[in-house]
Structures are given as structure tokens and as C-alpha cells.
What does this fold into?
Amino acid sequence: MTMIDKFRSRRDAARRARAIERALRSANSPAVRDEILTIAQRYYG
It folds into this structure.
């Protein structure tokens, strides 16, 4: 993996993490939060 690929991978992971945090903050119910966390585990699990 080249240095640029590592940078892009880290940037994409950070972007994904921010999007997940944003979605969790805006979720209206615990069920929606559970769904978001389940989907997030596919990336980080």
C-alpha cells in the first residue's frame, strides 16, 4: 500500500466515522440508533 493509499484510507475512515456520529446525533429513536450501529459494525466490526 502506497503512502497516498494509506492517507486516503485514513481520510475515508474519518469521514465515515463523522457521518456515523452525525447520524447517531440526529436519530429520533433508539431503534434507529440500533440500526445505524448495526450498519456501522459492517465497516468497523
Summary: The chain has one domain: 3-44. The radius of gyration is 13 Å. The helical segments are 3-26, 30-44.
